[in-house]
Model the fold of this input.
Amino acid sequence: MDRKEKNRLKSAISEFIDLSNGRFKDDEVERLHSIVENRDSYNGKSRTYRDSYKTFDSEDTYRVETEDTYTFVSDESGIHIDHDFTRDWDDGQHDVWHESFKTGRGILNAIGRISP
Done:
């Protein structure tokens, strides 16, 4: 891909995704452009991963249930991927994290968790 074509694609991408002065290979620019072009088909697509494991400390052994959800969002603010993580311990502790991937690099890293 020549420089002119790459800059044209990056310009179209930047209307929806924050490229944050990132450096992207040709195939990454093409992947981001494909995401922008097909944003309506991705919008709302979500995948949840569940896991269960045992852990211990000096006092006891605990069972932990985790839930990891990735959701593709395309709205007036642009394109981003929301990541929600919860962890429930059998002793009643409940942990919750939320993060949003809004940059080109973050979206490229997280999109594989939604669709292979």
Summary: The beta strands are 46-56, 61-75, 78-89, 94-101. The longest helix spans residues 26-37.
